[in-house]
């Protein structure tokens, strides 16, 4: 585990939260995150297990790295950031992204990797009481065996204001393809969507051989609620959180 201050490079002992642990780095909860990092029980659970050197956790995830002290902001920098933050208004928009056309057996399908690129046509239903004043911005990531990446997925607008897009997924992609959208209103409100799973692609030629629940060994006080991680295990050795 490592505390990193950009532009310092990351080391090999950086722990990536599994895709199901939706945690925001910032105080404002963006993109449908359940909590911020200092309040997340998922982060706390991992830190406790790493401190205890829990045997169920991979060795690479319980190695501690340096915690460098970041450069402190001077008064002028702090003033600029505080001024900007005071003018930002954020509003969530849920269940607004939809697939217009999906290959295979329809929305929600989990096609096997078949060596072919895939394209999905998606749209954002912008509410009439919060119209976009400019272009909608989209973000696409893949939650795969190696963690979160933007490799192998691209979003191309197909309308003037960007409310409809084509999501292109390379043949090499394995995992969950997820998109988010954000736009500004004329009232200077930033509207952001919850994350939408476009598709899930399993490893080519592999079959699901088992499911592991993590953490496998955890003692919690009465009344504590956690979100377990379900890890799919495939015949080729691939492991992915589901």
Question: What does the model show?
Answer:
The protein is mainly β and 242 residues long. The protein folds into 3 domains: 65 residues, no CATH class; 112 residues, Immunoglobulin-like (Sandwich), CATH 2.60.40; 34 residues, no CATH class. The strands form 4 sheets. Strands 3, 6, 7, 10, 11 and 12 form a 6-stranded mixed beta sheet that branches. A 4-stranded antiparallel beta sheet has the order 4-5-9-8, with no helix packed on it. Strand 8 and strand 9 form a beta hairpin. The longest helix has 13 residues. About 4% of the residues have low confidence.
Summed up:
10% of the residues lie in helices and 33% in strands.
Task: Give the arrangement of secondary structure elements.
Layout lengths: L22 E2 L10 E2 L4 H11 L23 H13 L1 E5 L3 E5 L16 E7 L12 E8 L2 E3 L3 E5 L6 E6 L5 E10 L4 E5 L2 E6 L6 E7 L14 E6 L4 E3 L1
**Overall form:** globular
Please trace the helix and strand order, writing H or E for each element: EEHHEEEEEEEEEEEEE
- How many strands appear in the DSSP assignment? 15
Task: Give start-end ranges of low-pLDDT stretches.
Answer: 103-111
Return the CATH architecture of the largest domain: Sandwich
**CATH topology title of the largest domain:** Immunoglobulin-like
Give the CA-CA distance, first to last residue. Answer: 23 Å
Overall tally of domains? 3
The CATH class assignment of the largest domain is Mainly Beta
Average pLDDT, rounded to a whole number, is: 79
Q: How many helices in DSSP terms?
A: 2
Outline the biggest β-sheet.
Answer: 6 strands, mixed
**Proportion of residues in β-strands:** 25-35%
User: Structural class of the secondary elements?
Assistant: mainly beta
Gyration radius from CA atoms, angstroms: 20 Å
What is the helix content? under 10%
